[in-house]
């Protein structure tokens, strides 16, 4: 009998402390970020989908279509086409497609790239209505950015 | 009728019906299906049906080079992705005899332990949700957010990190990370006391967990269950102590185990493990040595010597072992991923005999299953 | 860094601690002391003597077992034993009686040699010893006795190995596909499996 | 107050007006208690709760109501259509009828029956049968398990609640709720909660009543019927659209009924704590404090295990309420009213 009475007592006191804790939380400020109105700044090393890097001097993409990234990618997401424009020593990129539906953001391509021509972008809200929208054309995107 | 009478009742007498718990069910936390043969609300026989999220990682491993399989390892058990990559990277280093610099080993221990705490916090929230308490989930996820921000600052990812490389880690840890980790340890300790007051000592929770679904150490051994499940049955089996790897022998931490083997014991093991992980992180951050984070002589094309190599780590759910059979080519011949959730779930059929539905849900939650971990 | 010297491990806090598989084991070892290389003779002797004594009675003249100690630092297990398919259940019973737990069953398809191999990994909850039992079966009709009677945990491992490689386990209570759909009759992990 | 009492409208019109007022009160409350619960749950969990629809989410309940109205009510195949449709109505009807007897203010009881207390509990048991009907008629295994649970849970908690009510009958001497509130006039020390002379264990009796009220309405730690993590949505699994909406309103109407009954019986209905100007305001303040405590309890505790729930009632609450009944009978016999 004494045992069950003590158990009832400890039980009730544990309920009361539980209520006390949630009440204290009730009056504390909100911790959540109200997303559409406020949004967080992504850290420096954040891994969004990759993007081409522009050569600061000439303004053209650094990539010369050596296809190292294409070979390094585990899921074959990258297809690169390059052509040798006259008046230039090396090839330069003309087509750069990234199939973001299969990319696992592992960074093997960025590491494999010798000339630092691709890096992670800070994009994270990528809503789309069809799968084709996620076959990203990075070359076109770089040009559009250029404008 | 008490549980034992349910099982004892002769076959003919019971009118049973089959209830499908899953694959679409809040209590299974993933696409696991439990075919429960029930008599009223007692479970006569439970048969887990798996395979709904089977992606065949082992076949993928057989047509990818070692470096290309790295992203897969963090997608087997996405809640303790760091430890799973640690196992695969460790196996390759063990076979190729790569020397990992001490700073990289310390960083691996810190990030693995942070990952373990974040995995236990997800378990705590989801388990309380199974038992009907909604609020602790939000508090646990609030704490976990701090860990994810820390790891995101260093690795760039929040869940499936691709941070370890053969021979070290891909980029170094900055001062903000070490300071942030120290702040997190100081912040988390009082939070653990808050969870003890709000949840562990709560009489309703104790009535839900104490003495429910006891599992003996012998059953754990027979089914190969490891991690908090076997530590909840009194066996202090921890891969970090049994097969020491990385820099774990340099840190002192206890392996919590409780003899009762019921849901409460497994719950207390995980809560205590979070405190132990905090101790490890604290020691590791204090003694973080200087130096490179990447081994120098890592061959560009990695070929493992022919034969077998096995490497086991203590993941959040238990012993994760990678067994690579290689035939001296850059693509492995066969990779076996021994996942803890598969063995932990295999004892569910025996442990849930005669339980009531709410207790079966409590048992399922106490096993802390990640379904892709079972199906691979 | 000599992998066998455990004490090099303890006092060198800042030294290269990255020796994977260093053996500073502190668990109470039921069977074998810290797994330095030569420590395994007692386990090996026990297993060989146990298996050999059975073999005397069995009619089939199976090749005797070939057990050998292995360097943990480079392989990840301490003792390796090659056993004939009929000995698998016996080996499992020996492992069970010495307190081991079944880690996993790996099936490997050696297409070139026309054989399939079964790897039984064992770990021990109390002692740091790790044992690997190998068993070769012909590729044409891969058959092996089930050990789910000894280790109920093996039930699912065997179902998985059966559906991935087609190795039939005699006496298995329910050899239906475990991860693949119920009506799957293909074996994906076979080397000659056309996707 | 006196102005209102002065208007002498014909009896039937007054009753109809009051009933319409109560239905409006329940309708408004059912909608905005949902909003209060979601906002309260948010604040307990350090998040905001609905804040997009209208200022601070005030239009959220209306949005929910419109959504539920536009959804089609599907009757599962092979289900008993008439019972399936009747169940939600039978959940909300008893609550509405019982609220007619609750004295919201000095002259604000729709119909002041002198058997008000018994009438409330007479209709209270219809609620159990309605949930069981809903569960059984939707031909869904989860719903049937939940229906079985609802019956045993409500039966287990009906008894201690009635014992407490009988104790209160002894203490107050009357069953008409208005009279019960009237003789709690004066400061809060006149409330039945503090009338220790008649029943020294009065706070315990109030606690028992509160626990039984929670269990009767399948709320908080006792929500075995709608245990979302085991039974998906329990008895409401197969209900969509307005069927689910009416069940939901029924649940909140029952909470309103339970809390207002507790206010009337223990906390002196519309009496002001300091004996100044009694009125509807005080009744609503006490009512919403109790409703807040129901929300507070729900978002703090996990769910009890089914056997724990029944043990709590049969082994603790019933002996306790029987004890207080005998004790208060003895006290009244010895000390007189």
Structural class designation of chain D: mainly alpha
Strand order of the largest sheet of chain A: 2-3-5
Shape of chain D: globular
Instruction: Determine the oligomeric state from the structure.
Output: heterotetramer
| Proportion of residues in extended strands of chain D | under 5%
Count of helices of chain A? 4
Radius of gyration of chain D: 20 Å
**CATH level 1 class label of the largest domain in chain A:** Alpha Beta
SSE succession of chain D: HHHHHHHHHHHH
Overall geometric form of chain A: elongated
Number of strands of chain A: 5
Number of strands of chain D: 0
- What's the order of the H and E elements of chain A? HEHEEHEEH
Mean pLDDT of chain D: 86
Q: Considering DSSP H and I runs of 4 or more, what fraction of the residues of chain A is helical?
A: 25-40%
Number of domains of chain D: 1
Distance between the termini of chain A: 83 Å
Polypeptide structure, described:
The complex is a heterotetramer of chains A (147), B (376), C (195) and D (337). With 147 residues, chain A is of the alpha+beta class. Chain A is 30% helix and 16% strand. In chain A, β2 (78-83) and β3 form a beta hairpin. Chain B folds into 2 domains: 3-49, no CATH class; 57-374, Cytochrome-c3 Hydrogenase, chain B (Orthogonal Bundle), CATH 1.10.645. In chain B, α3 (66-73) runs antiparallel to α4 and α6 (135-155) runs antiparallel to α7 (175-200). Chain B is globular and about 70 Å long. With 195 residues, chain C is an alpha/beta fold. Chain C is built from 5 helices and 7 strands. Chain C has helices at 7-11, 41-57, 72-75, 87-97, 154-165, and strands at 66-69, 79-82, 101-110, 115-123, 130-138, 143-145, 168-170. In chain C, the strands form 2 sheets. In chain C, strands 1-2-5-4-3 form a 5-stranded mixed beta sheet. Chain C has a two-stranded parallel ribbon with strand order 6-7. In chain C, 44% of the residues are buried. Chain D contains 12 helices and no strands. In chain D, α2 (11-44) crosses α10 (242-266), α5 (116-137) runs antiparallel to α6 and α10 crosses α11 (280-298). The two termini of chain D are 30 Å apart. The mean pLDDT of chain D is 86. Chains B and C meet through α4, α5, α9, β6 and β7 of B and α3, β3, β4 and α5 of C.
Which tags fit this structure?
heterotetramer, B: 376 residues, alpha+beta, Cytochrome-c3 Hydrogenase, chain B, three-stranded antiparallel sheet, C: 195 residues, alpha/beta, Beta Polymerase, domain 2, five-stranded mixed sheet, two-stranded parallel sheet, 25% helix, globular
């Amino acid at each position: 009998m004494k045992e069950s009475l003590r158990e009832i007592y400890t039980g009730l006191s544990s309920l009361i402390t539980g209520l006390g804790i949630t009440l204290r939380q009730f009056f504390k400020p909100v911790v959540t970020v109200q997303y559409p109105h406020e949004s967080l700044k992504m850290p420096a090393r954040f891994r969004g989908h990759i993007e081409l890097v522009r050569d600061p001097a000439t303004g053209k993409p650094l990539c010369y279509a050596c296809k190292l990234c294409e070979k390094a990618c585990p899921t074959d997401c990258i297809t690169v086409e390059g052509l040798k424009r006259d008046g230039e020593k090396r090839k330069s990129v003309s087509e750069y497609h990234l199939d973001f539906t299969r990319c696992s953001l592992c960074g093997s391509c960025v590491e494999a790239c010798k000339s630092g021509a691709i890096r992670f972008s800070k994009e994270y809200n990528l809503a789309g209505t069809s799968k084709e929208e996620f076959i990203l054309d990075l070359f076109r995107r770089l040009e559009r950015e250029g404008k | 009728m008490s549980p034992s009478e349910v099982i004892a009742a002769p076959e003919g007498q019971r009118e049973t019906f089959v209830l499908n718990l899953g694959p679409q069910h809040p209590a299974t936390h993933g696409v696991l299906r439990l075919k429960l043969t029930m008599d009223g609300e007692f479970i006569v026989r439970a048969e887990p049906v798996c395979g709904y999220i089977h992606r065949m990682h082992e076949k993928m491993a057989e047509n990818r080079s070692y470096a290309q399989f790295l992203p897969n390892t963090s997608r087997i058990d996405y809640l303790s992705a760091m430890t799973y990559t640690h196992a695969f990277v460790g196996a390759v280093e063990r076979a190729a005899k790569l020397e990992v610099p001490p700073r990289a080993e310390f960083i691996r221990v810190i990030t693995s332990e942070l990952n373990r705490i974040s995995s236990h916090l997800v378990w705590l929230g989801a388990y309380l949700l199974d038992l009907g308490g909604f609020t602790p989930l939000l508090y646990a996820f609030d704490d976990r957010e701090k860990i994810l921000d820390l790891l995101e600052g260093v690795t760039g990812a929040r869940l499936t990190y691709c941070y370890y490389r053969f021979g070290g880690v891909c980029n170094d840890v900055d001062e903000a990370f070490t300071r942030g980790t120290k702040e997190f340890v100081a912040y988390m300790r009082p939070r653990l006391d808050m969870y003890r007051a709000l949840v562990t000592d709560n009489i309703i929770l104790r009535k839900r967990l104490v003495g429910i679904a006891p599992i003996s150490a012998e059953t754990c051994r027979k089914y190969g269950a490891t991690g908090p499940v076997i530590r909840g049955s009194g066996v202090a089996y921890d891969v970090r102590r049994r097969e020491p790897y990385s820099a774990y022998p340099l840190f002192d931490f206890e392996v919590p185990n409780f003899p009762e083997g019921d849901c409460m014991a497994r719950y207390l093991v995980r809560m205590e493990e979070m405190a132990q992980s905090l101790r490890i992180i604290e020691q590791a951050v204090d003694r973080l040595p200087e130096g490179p984070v990447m081994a120098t002589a890592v061959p560009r094309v990695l070929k493992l010597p022919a034969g077998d190599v096995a490497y086991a780590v203590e993941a959040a759910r238990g012993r994760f072992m990678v067994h690579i059979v290689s035939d001296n080519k850059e693509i492995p011949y066969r990779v076996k991923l021994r996942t803890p959730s598969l063995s932990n779930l295999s004892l569910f059929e025996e442990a849930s005999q005669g339980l009531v539905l709410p207790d079966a849900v409590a048992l399922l939650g106490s096993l802390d299953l990640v379904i892709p971990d079972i199906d691979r | 860094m000599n992998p066998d010297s455990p004490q090099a491990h303890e006092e060198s806090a800042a030294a290269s601690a990255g020796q994977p598989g260093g053996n500073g084991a502190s668990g109470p070892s039921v069977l074998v002391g810290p797994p330095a290389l030569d420590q395994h003779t007692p386990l090996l002797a026990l297993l060989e003597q146990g298996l050999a004594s059975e073999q005397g009675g069995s009619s089939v003249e199976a090749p005797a077992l070939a057990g050998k100690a292995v360097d943990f630092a480079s392989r990840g297990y301490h003792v390796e034993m090659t056993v004939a398919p009929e000995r698998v259940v016996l080996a499992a019973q020996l492992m069970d009686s010495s307190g081991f737990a079944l880690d996993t069953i790996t099936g490997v398809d050696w297409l070139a040699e026309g054989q399939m191999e079964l790897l039984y990994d064992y770990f021990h909850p109390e002692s740091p010893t790790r044992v690997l039992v190998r068993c070769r079966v012909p590729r044409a009709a891969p058959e092996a006795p089930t050990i789910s009677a000894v280790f109920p945990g093996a039930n699912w491992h065997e179902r998985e190995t059966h559906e991935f490689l087609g190795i039939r386990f005699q006496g298995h209570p329910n050899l239906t596909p475990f991860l693949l759909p119920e009506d799957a009759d293909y074996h994906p992990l076979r080397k000659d499996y056309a996707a | 107050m006196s102005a209102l009492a002065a208007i002498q409208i014909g009896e039937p019109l007054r009753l109809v007006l009051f009933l319409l007022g109560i239905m409006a009160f329940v309708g408004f409350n059912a909608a905005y208690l949902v909003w209060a619960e979601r906002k309260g749950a948010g604040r307990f969990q350090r998040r905001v709760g609905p804040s997009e629809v209208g200022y601070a989410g005030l239009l959220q309940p209306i949005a929910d109501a419109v959504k539920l109205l536009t959804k089609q009510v599907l009757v599962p195949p092979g289900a008993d259509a008439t019972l399936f449709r009747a169940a939600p109505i039978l959940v909300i009807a008893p609550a509405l009828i019982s609220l007619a007897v609750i004295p919201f203010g000095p002259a604000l009881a729709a119909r002041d029956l002198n058997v008000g207390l018994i009438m409330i509990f007479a209709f209270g048991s219809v609620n159990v049968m309605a949930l069981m009907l809903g569960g059984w008629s939707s031909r869904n295994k989860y719903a049937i398990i939940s229906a079985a649970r609802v019956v045993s849970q409500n039966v287990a908690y009906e008894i201690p609640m009635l014992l407490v009510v009988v104790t209160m009958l002894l203490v107050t001497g009357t069953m008409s709720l208005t009279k019960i509130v009237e003789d709690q006039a004066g400061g809060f020390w006149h409330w039945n909660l503090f009338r220790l002379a008649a029943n020294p264990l009065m706070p315990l009796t109030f606690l028992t009543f509160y626990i039984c009220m929670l269990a009767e309405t399948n709320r908080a730690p006792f929500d075995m019927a709608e245990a979302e993590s085991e039974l998906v949505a329990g008895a409401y699994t197969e209900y969509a659209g307005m069927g689910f909406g009416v069940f939901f309103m029924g649940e909140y109407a029952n909470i309103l009924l339970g809390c207002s009954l507790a206010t009337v019986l223990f906390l002196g209905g519309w009496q002001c704590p300091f004996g100044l100007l009694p009125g509807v305001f005080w009744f609503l303040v006490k009512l919403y404090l109790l409703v807040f405590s129901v929300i507070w309890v729900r978002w703090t505790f996990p769910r009890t295990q089914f056997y724990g729930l029944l043990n709590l009632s049969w082994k603790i609450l019933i002996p306790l309420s029987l004890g207080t009944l005998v004790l208060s009978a003895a006290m009244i016999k010895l000390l007189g009213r």
